[in-house]
């Protein structure tokens, strides 16, 4: 009888996921997180800042990493252990971004992987960078 | 005429903020982030995991840092530059946690500070740890 070999995460694997957030998402995130900083919510206030217009909460933008890890790559059963985040440039509503993941290290005996996490704009500029460590007992 | 000296952030300053999230917050966060991992939403599924019951999204828990930086400490005008997060233990709905901040470094000429960011449970156990770098042109 043939044994099916499970396909596990490998160093060098990459995964990309396109996404965008709209105005409703930003106001909902402000509500649920309690972060009502006017830079995210108030056009008039935001127009006088270095960003010139309202920006998306960094944590809302970076929540794409949580979504992808939990649902797509590696997916179901993933436990989030750590995440570093550098907010290098602001994110705006209704623009399309790509979350890009690259597996940097795999520790099979602990079912853990270190994964580079990037958010890129449509020109490939890095908007948010960082690294995550995740555990998944069946996929890593 | 007396000049008023602005009170700026100092190394060693601390700030604490109590908070909790409820079930509605968790479901709202799942909606807005797209992270519908059943560990956060499905009682039956969660009961079979190592956590035994539904847990709060790590990013929802840690969004308290974003709220405090933007609204309370140092407050208005804060720009978030970076954040590290270690999710050391799960967070649950309707429990009271404390976000604790300690200023580790101040770079006045860049208006930047490095701040330790912790989430503690009611027994003082560290649930989430990390460090942030924030900029605030008038308060740092």
Protein model, in words:
The structure is a homodimer of 140-residue chains. By secondary structure, chain A is of the alpha+beta class. The first copy, chain A, has a domain at 14-20 and 58-135: Thiol Ester Dehydrase, Chain A (Roll), CATH 3.10.129. In chain A, 24% of the residues lie in helices and 32% in strands. Chain A has a five-stranded antiparallel sheet, covered by helices on one side. In chain A, a hairpin with a 5-residue loop joins strand 4 (112-120) and strand 5 (126-135). The longest helix of chain A has 14 residues, at 58-71. Chain A is elongated, with a radius of gyration of 17 Å. The A-B interface holds A 19, 25, 28-29, 31-40, 50, 57-60, 62-67, 70-71, 76, 78-87 and B 19, 25, 28-29, 31-40, 50, 57-60, 62-67, 70-71, 76, 78-87. Strand 2 (79-87) of chain A pairs antiparallel with strand 2 of chain B, so a sheet runs across the interface.
Outline the fold blueprint.
2 copies of one chain form a homodimer.
Chain A: E1 14-19, H1 23-33, H2 38-41, H3 43-47, H4 58-71, E2 79-87, E3 97-107, E4 112-120, E5 126-135
Antiparallel strand pairs in A: 1-3, 2-5, 3-4, 4-5
Q: How many individual helices of chain A?
A: 4
Report the radius of gyration of chain A as a whole number of Å. Answer: 17 Å
- The CATH architecture of the domain at 14-20 and 58-135 in chain A can be given as Roll
Helix content of chain A: 10-25%
Biggest interface found: A-B, 38 and 38 residues
What's the number of extended β-strand segments of chain A? 5
What is the CATH topology descriptor of the domain at 14-20 and 58-135 in chain A?
Thiol Ester Dehydrase, Chain A
């Amino acid at each position: 009888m043939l044994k099916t070999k499970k396909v596990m995460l490998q160093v060098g694997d990459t995964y990309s996921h396109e996404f965008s957030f709209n105005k409703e998402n930003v106001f909902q995130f402000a509500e649920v997180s309690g972060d009502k900083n006017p830079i995210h919510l108030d056009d008039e206030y935001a127009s006088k800042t270095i960003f010139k217009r309202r920006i998306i909460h960094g944590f809302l933008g970076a929540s794409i990493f949580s979504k992808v890890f939990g649902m797509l790559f590696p997916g179901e059963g993933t436990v989030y252990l750590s995440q570093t985040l550098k907010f290098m440039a602001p994110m705006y509503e209704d623009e399309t971004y790509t979350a890009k993941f690259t597996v940097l290290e795999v520790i099979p005996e602990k079912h853990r992987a270190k994964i580079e996490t990037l958010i890129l704009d449509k020109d490939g500029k890095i908007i948010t960078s960082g690294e995550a460590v995740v555990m998944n007992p069946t996929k890593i």
